[in-house]
Amino acid sequence: MVWSSLWPWRPDAQIRFDLTGVGGTTLEWTLYVDEPAPDRETIVRMRKRINRLINANLRFTFGQ
């Protein structure tokens, strides 16, 4: 599954989700952006936002 960009200033950014499972399910996401690549600080902020949306908010949805 691929999400379109979460950032209006980087409409090229996409988040790809891969699900694999052997005895359970593993979720892995990858952030893709076109050149020029963001600086390190921006990448950290983008990753934090994705982590919050995926990990924290999803767990809260299920009461964990």
In words, what does this structure look like?
The protein is α+β, with helices and mostly antiparallel strands and about 60 residues long. It has one domain. Helices cover about 35% and strands about 25% of the residues. It has a 3-stranded antiparallel β-sheet with strand order 1-2-3, with no helix packed on it. It is globular and about 40 Å long.
Entry summary:
This protein has 1 helix and 3 strands; from the N terminus they run βββα.
SSE blueprint and pairings:
Blueprint lengths: L1 E2 L10 E7 L5 E7 L7 H22 L3
The side-by-side strand order for the widest beta sheet comes to 1-2-3
Number of domains: 1
Helix content: 25-40%
Distance between the termini: 24 Å
Count of extended strands: 3
The major sheet is characterized as: 3 strands, antiparallel
Regions with little confidence, pLDDT below 50 for 5+ residues: none
The SS-based structural class is alpha+beta
Order of helices and strands: EEEH
List keywords for this structure.
alpha+beta; 64 residues; 25% strand; single chain; three-stranded antiparallel β-sheet
